[in-house]
């Protein structure tokens, strides 16, 4: 019974003695977050005998890890674009209703969604400082993507793109041949991490189902369903319909501050307007326009990353309206908010000079 979240949660909260026969496993992923939170849960039993109290503690831990990962990303923005841009980018996380609902989810484990991007940011920072890329940076990319996938393979195209986004930024403003080589090596490391997670999933399946054939059938069934090859529910749904669903029909706020709300289309429009105005000011003041190349490429990738999953996996995206809009926050919303501040600052500086 793969869809047993409520059953298992009730067993956990009520402290019901559970054996292998009573537990309903979800076999479509490796479940690394289950190992992590399961271990913490056993530790917490010494101080918190009540199941509800332990669940609250696990939510707190999950949320803390998420905010810690977001702060690391904000630190990278601070170093490149200044403290005000970093503050606006991080504020967009605090004011995001979708994220505030999702970050406590022990199943989705949102902080792991940031690991590939953080690994890419660290690789770029170390490379800039040393003038070369140490081998362990690629190993961290491999590990980050493996851990992400062992907590669920959904949305993986989004996070593979965001892993490369920092390198694309450096490529736009540095030695392009060298950064292209690093992008290729990073891509192999990231895909290698995904493959390793698939291998772990397959091995677990062999142990669970008792045969390689059973494990392979479970794995391939889940994968082909996610990428819309074998899911009859969406056989007649087109990519255009899926994109229309999220660009037009789903109009819930991405950002909310009291009565003030911002949805997807206004955010995209304002960001594009900011780029256009900054470009015009730089051109009028005869300043180099290349300074906009890196930020523009990162913004385009931050938009393309969530769209990639909608295109690759229309089956999953079309039915998960309660979840897919969170992808706009990885990293379109924070990137847009941070870049808007930087664009205004760049235009004002050009005018003053």
Could you walk me through the main structural features you see in this protein, from its secondary elements to its overall organization?
This protein is an all-alpha fold and 353 residues long. It is 71% helix and 2% strand. It is globular, with a radius of gyration of 22 Å. It has a two-stranded antiparallel ribbon. The mean pLDDT is 90. The chain is built from 15 helices and two strands. The N and C termini lie far apart (66 Å).
Quickly describe the structure:
This protein has about 350 residues and is mainly alpha-helical.
Secondary-structure topology with pairs:
Blueprint: H1 5-13, H2 32-44, H3 51-81, H4 83-94, H5 97-102, H6 115-130, H7 135-150, H8 156-173, H9 176-209, H10 212-226, H11 239-249, E1 255-257, E2 260-262, H12 264-284, H13 293-312, H14 314-319, H15 332-352
Antiparallel strand pairs: 1-2
Helix pairs in contact: 2-3, 3-4, 3-6, 4-15, 6-7, 6-8, 7-8, 7-9, 8-9, 8-13, 9-10, 12-15, 13-15
Order of helices and strands: HHHHHHHHHHHEEHHHH
Low-confidence stretches: none
Percent in helix: over 70%
**Residues in β-strands, percent:** under 5%
Number of strands: 2
* First-to-last CA distance: 66 Å
Strand order in the largest sheet: 1-2
Note the overall shape. globular
Rounded to an integer in angstroms, the radius of gyration calculated over CA atoms is: 22 Å
Notable features of this structure?
353 residues, mainly alpha, two-stranded antiparallel sheet, 15 helices, 2 strands, 71% helix
